[in-house]
Amino acid sequence: NITATWTGHDICGNTTYLGFYCAALPGRTKKPTVTVVIFNGYGLRAPKLEGFIDHLPDLALFHAASNDFGGDIPYLTGLAYNYKINVDSNLQIQDDFSRDMVGSHVTTKVHGYCVNLDLDITFHLRPGKDDKKGRSIPGATDSKALLLNYNHLSGPLPVNIGFSKLSYLALANNRLTGAIPPSILHLQDSLLEVLLLNNQLSGCLPHELGMLTKAAVFDAGMNQLTGPIPSSFSCLTSVEQLNLGGNRLYGEIPDALCKLAAVPAGRLANLTLSSNYFTSVGPACLSLIKDGVLNVRNNCIPGFANQRRPAECASFHSQPKACPAASATHVACPAGAANAAAAPADRVVKDYSSYVTYATLHE
């Protein structure tokens, strides 16, 4: 019984609050505060998370996969994260939260016991138990992670989610509804990975998604998203895993998107667009299909194998469409997009366990 360890009023004191981890923040009093919550696999149940996460103002990492939490996702703008966490692939994200600390004098908390050691904090997170390679995740500094796969979260994504400075967002296998808010644009300087797969999200793909030029993973497969792929997706120069399969997308698969896998600088290793209603592809996309990078099965592309029945395609395309057409004009990408191109040696197909968010699906 995890909650039986939650005794007393001082979470960061000499108690046994399993799942809570504390640290003293730089520039403040040395009194520890809750900075990390790990409930992964605890089987906890609560009708909502509102009033909990949003009342921990110094929270940097919240990992609670495989629980029974419901309700809406809380507003995260009050989490004024102000110290550094470097995230790479060499410490387990789990309830046995061992630590590897870099820098002088760190205060942390392991199973409720504070260990005073000062200032800068560096946790190295390893996403998979068998990953011994220690690969680092570039740019993963000043990170915040919200990892809530396999719960019963419902309702829409918060309209101001873009103001939370998240780096890792994993909300797979929930019951989230509504559109992806355009405010996600404001995560362009921080967001590295996002999992929204297997929810009930709907609406058009916002143009702003294409401005997330630091994101290596964007997975919104198995939802009800619709519309054409915005031309801004050609700006996703850091993306390695892009999954939009199992939605209601249509139109042409943009050739500019497929060129994100082109040598010598492309990073894109997997582009999944299966089980949609696309009707055509360009030359660069044809090349990716041959190379096994692009999956277009179960669409409406004439002359291609393994497509939907013509009657099914005709029925879908006869329905009114409310999403704006994809622009054929040149898109002005953010200044950092060109700098995100990979060196040839960096363009390798990674195992899914090497990504922080995908690894949380299998813990």
Automatic annotation (TrEMBL):
Keyword Phosphoprotein: no
Gene Ontology CC annotation, any one: extracellular region
Coiled coil: none
Pfam families, A to Z: LRR_1 (PF00560)
Keywords per UniProt: Repeat, Secreted, Signal
Top-rank taxon: Eukaryota
UniProt-annotated location(s): Secreted
First-listed, main subcellular location of the protein, grouped into a coarse class: secreted
Protein name per its UniProtKB record: Os02g0616100 protein
Originating species: Oryza sativa subsp. japonica
